[in-house]
C-alpha cells in the first residue's frame, strides 16, 4: 500500500493493488558506459509517455499508484497559458511503452480525470514544478507497469550517487529516439549548479549530470524521473526533470525538482492571527464578500466568497459532477462579479474578474459531496474596497457549530436568517449527512431556504467581536419551492487549514 501526502494534504492516494514500488522484473542495464543507451525493454516500468490532444509527445510522467502519476507542472501552465487553455480531456498517457512507433504488446493508454498543478508553481522561476495526473481509468499494475517508490521526506540526496534518467527524448543521443533510452547522471552539489544557474533553488531543486560532459536531457524529457536505487535495491524517484536540459551543447547539468521535498505535508502554523483589517460591522446585507459566478454561456452558476485579493472560496460541485470535471468546462470564459447588487443592471461598483486557476479539494466526492470546497484564483488582482471585502475565516480551526447565524442569498438579493441546527436534526432529513464535514442550518417546516443557484454561497455568522466569518458553504438540501428541509453546508472550520495552506502555496496567503 502506498500512502502519499502531497503538500498539505493536497492529495492522499492509497493504492489498493499490492504491486511493490521500485522493483522491476527486468533489471535495467547499469554498467557505466559513456553516452546514453537504449534501455532494456520493461526495465523502467514506472515511466509513462504523455501525448497531447494533437498526438504530439509532451514529455514523460512517473507512475505512483493505480490512478496517479507525477510529472512537471510546466506541461500544463506556462507564460500566457494555463490548464484551461489545454484540451486535457484528449491527452493520454501511454504505459508499458517501449517503442513509440510500434504497438508494443504491453502498452495501454489512459485518459486524465484531473491534473493537480502544485499551487505554488511559479512559471517564471519554475519553483514547485510538480503536478499530479489523476487518471480516469484504473491503471493496471503488472510486470510492465509499476509504481516508483517515493523517497522518505527526510531523504537527503547523495552527491556523487549515479542515478538514471529514462526518457523518449533525444536524451541520450543513441540515434534511436523511437525506443526508451536512458542516461546515467551523477548528482552534483548545489554549489556546482549555482555557478551554472544563478536562479537555481537549493531548497526545492537537485542538480545532476556533467559540467563538460556529452550527456544531458533534452526539452522533450521534461517531467522524466531521475531514478536512484536505495539501500534495499528499490528504485525511488529523486528528481523530476525541470530545466537546464541542453542536449546540443551538453556542457551544463540538468535541474530536477527535489522530490523528497514534495513527498509530505508541509507543516504550517495553525495559529490564526486575528488581524482583521476589513473589520466589518454592518449587517451581512451589504454582501461585500459575495461574488456572483457566471459561466461561459453567461448563466449564473452560483456564488463564491472573497478571501483575499486573488482568492475566492466556493463549492467544488460547480466544477466537477457526475460525468464531467474541470476539463469539460470552459473555465477560461467564466467570470466572477464582485461589488454586485442588482444582477440586471450595471451597478456602479460592480467589476468582474477572470479565473487563472481552480483548486478543487482533492478529497471531493461527487457522490457524497464530501469536501465540497474549491478555491478560485483570479487572473486579475481583486480591488478591495468598501464594496468588495474578504470574509473572515473562522478563528477556531476545529468546528464549533454555533446556534444562530444568518445567510446572505444572492439572486434576488434576499437576506435570510438561518439558525444552525443540531447534526441529529439534519441526519433525520438526510441519512447521508456527514457530521464530520458538514453543518446544517435552516428550518424543518419553515418558509425560508436556499435554492440550487445559491450553491457555493456562504453561511455567514457573527463572532463575539462583531466580525462576520464564513461558517458554511451551501452544498445541498436547498429546496426553495418546498422549504420543509434545512440546507446542508460544508463546515468551513474543518477546511480552514486546507484553505490557508493552499492559498499560501498559490502565492496569496490569507491575511485577515
Ligand atoms: C515567481 O518568480 C519570479 C522570478 O523569480 C519572482 O519575481 C516572483 O515574485 C515569483 N512569484 C511568486 C508569486 O512567488
Ligand atoms: C545550449 O548551449 C549553447 C552553448 O552554451 C547555447 O548557445 C544555447 O543557447 C543553449 N540552448 C538552450 C536551449 O539553452
Ligand atoms: C464517495 O461517496 C460514495 C457515496 O457515499 C461512497 O460509496 C464512495 O466510497 C466514496 N468514494 C470515495 C473515494 O471515498
Ligand atoms: C422539494 O420538496 C418537495 C416536497 O417535499 C419534493 O417533491 C421535491 O422533489 C423537492 N425538490 C428537490 C429539488 O429536492
What's this entry about, in short?
By secondary structure, the protein is mainly beta.
CATH topology category name of the largest domain: Thrombin, subunit H
Unreliable stretches covering 5 or more consecutive residues:
1-17, 264-287, 403-414
Annotated CATH homologous superfamily of the largest domain: Trypsin-like serine proteases
Number of helices: 3
What small ligands are held by the chains? 2-acetamido-2-deoxy-beta-D-glucopyranose
Q: Could you name the CATH class of the largest domain?
A: Mainly Beta
User: What would you call the shape?
Assistant: elongated
Number of E-type strands: 28
Domain count = 3
Second CATH tier, the architecture of the largest domain: Beta Barrel
Q: Distance N terminus to C terminus?
A: 40 Å
Helix content: under 10%
Largest sheet: 7 strands, antiparallel
Q: What structural class do helix, strand and pairing data support?
A: mainly beta
Mean pLDDT across residues: 77
- Taking Cα atoms only, what radius of gyration do you get, to the nearest Å? 25 Å
In what range is the share of β-strand residues? Answer: 25-35%
Describe the structure.
The chain is mainly beta and 512 residues long. The chain folds into 3 domains: 8-262, Beta Barrel (Thrombin, subunit H), CATH 2.40.10; 272-391 and 497-505, Thrombin, subunit H (Beta Barrel), CATH 2.40.10; 407-491, Trypsin-like serine proteases (Thrombin, subunit H, Beta Barrel), CATH 2.40.10.10. 5% of the residues lie in helices and 30% in strands. The radius of gyration is 25 Å and the shape is elongated. The relative contact order is 0.12. Residues 1-17, 264-287 and 403-414 have low confidence and may be disordered. The structure holds 2-acetamido-2-deoxy-beta-D-glucopyranose (4 copies). The site of one 2-acetamido-2-deoxy-beta-D-glucopyranose has 3 residues, from loops. One 2-acetamido-2-deoxy-beta-D-glucopyranose binds at residues 365, 367-368. GO terms for molecular function: serine-type endopeptidase activity. InterPro entries: Peptidase_S1_PA (IPR009003), Peptidase_S1_PA_chymotrypsin (IPR043504), Trypsin_dom (IPR001254).
Amino acid at each position: 500500500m502506498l500512502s502519499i501526502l502531497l503538500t498539505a494534504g493536497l492529495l492522499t492516494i492509497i493504492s489498493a493493488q499490492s504491486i511493490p514500488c521500485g522493483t522491476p522484473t527486468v533489471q535495467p542495464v547499469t554498467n557505466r558506459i559513456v553516452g546514453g543507451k537504449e534501455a532494456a525493454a520493461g526495465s523502467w516500468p514506472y515511466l509513462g509517455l504523455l501525448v497531447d490532444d494533437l498526438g504530439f509527445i509532451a514529455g514523460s510522467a512517473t507512475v505512483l499508484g493505480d490512478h496517479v502519476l507525477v510529472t512537471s507542472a510546466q506541461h500544463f501552465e506556462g507564460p500566457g497559458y494555463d490548464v484551461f487553455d489545454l484540451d486535457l480531456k484528449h491527452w493520454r498517457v501511454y504505459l508499458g511503452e517501449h517503442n513509440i512507433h510500434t504497438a508494443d504488446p504491453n502498452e495501454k493508454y489512459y485518459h486524465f480525470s484531473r491534473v493537480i498543478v502544485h499551487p505554488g508553481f511559479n512559471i517564471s522561476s519554475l519553483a514547485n514544478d510538480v503536478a499530479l495526473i489523476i487518471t480516469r481509468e484504473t491503471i493496471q499494475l503488472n510486470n510492465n507497469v509499476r509504481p516508483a517508490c517515493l523517497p522518505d521526506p527526510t531523504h537527503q540526496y547523495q552527491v556523487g550517487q549515479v542515478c538514471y534518467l529514462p526518457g523518449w527524448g533525444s536524451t541520450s543521443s543513441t540515434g534511436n529516439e523511437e525506443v526508451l533510452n536512458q542516461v546515467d547522471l551523477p548528482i552534483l552539489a548545489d554549489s556546482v549548479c549555482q555557478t551554472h544557474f544563478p536562479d537555481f533553488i537549493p531548497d526545492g531543486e537537485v542538480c545532476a549530470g556533467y559540467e563538460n560532459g556529452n550527456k544531458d536531457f533534452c526539452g522533450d524529457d521534461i517531467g522524466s524521473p531521475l531514478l536512484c536505487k536505495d539501500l534495499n535495491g528499490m528504485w525511488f524517484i529523486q528528481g523530476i526533470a525541470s530545466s537546464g536540459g541542453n542536449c546540443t551543447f551538453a556542457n551544463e547539468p540538468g535541474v530536477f525538482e527535489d522530490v523528497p521535498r514534495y513527498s509530505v505535508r508541509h507543516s504550517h502554523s495553525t495559529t490564526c492571527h486575528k488581524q482583521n483589517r476589513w473589520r466589518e460591522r454592518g449587517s451581512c446585507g451589504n454582501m461585500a464578500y459575495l461574488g456572483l459566478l457566471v459561466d461561459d454561456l453567461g448563466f449564473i452558476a452560483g456564488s463564491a466568497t472573497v478571501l483575499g485579493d486573488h482568492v475566492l472560496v466556493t463549492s467544488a460541485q460547480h466544477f466537477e459532477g457526475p460525468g464531467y470535471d474541470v476539463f469539460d468546462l470552459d473555465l477560461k470564459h467564466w467570470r466572477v462579479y464582485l461589488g454586485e447588487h442588482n444582477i440586471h443592471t450595471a451597478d456602479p461598483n460592480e467589476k468582474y474578474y477572470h479565473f487563472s486557476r481552480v483548486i478543487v479539494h482533492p478529497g471531493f466526492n461527487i457522490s457524497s459531496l464530501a469536501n465540497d470546497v474549491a478555491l478560485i484564483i483570479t487572473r486579475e488582482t481583486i480591488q478591495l474596497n468598501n464594496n468588495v471585502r474578504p470574509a473572515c475565516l473562522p478563528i477556531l480551526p476545529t468546528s464549533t457549530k454555533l446556534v444562530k447565524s444568518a445567510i446572505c442569498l444572492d439572486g434576488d438579493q434576499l437576506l435570510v436568517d438561518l439558525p444552525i441546527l443540531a447534526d441529529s436534526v439534519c441526519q433525520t432529513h438526510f441519512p447521508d449527512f456527514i457530521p464530520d464535514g458538514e453543518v446544517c442550518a435552516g428550518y424543518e417546516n419553515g418558509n425560508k431556504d436556499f435554492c440550487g443557484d445559491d450553491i457555493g454561497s456562504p453561511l455567514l455568522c457573527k463572532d463575539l467581536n462583531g466580525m462576520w466569518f464564513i461558517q458554511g458553504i451551501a452544498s445541498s438540501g436547498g429546496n426553495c419551492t418546498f422549504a420543509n428541509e434545512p440546507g446542508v453546508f460544508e463546515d468551513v472550520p474543518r477546511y480552514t487549514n486546507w484553505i490557508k495552506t493552499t492559498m499560501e502555496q498559490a502565492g496569496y496567503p490569507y491575511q485577515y
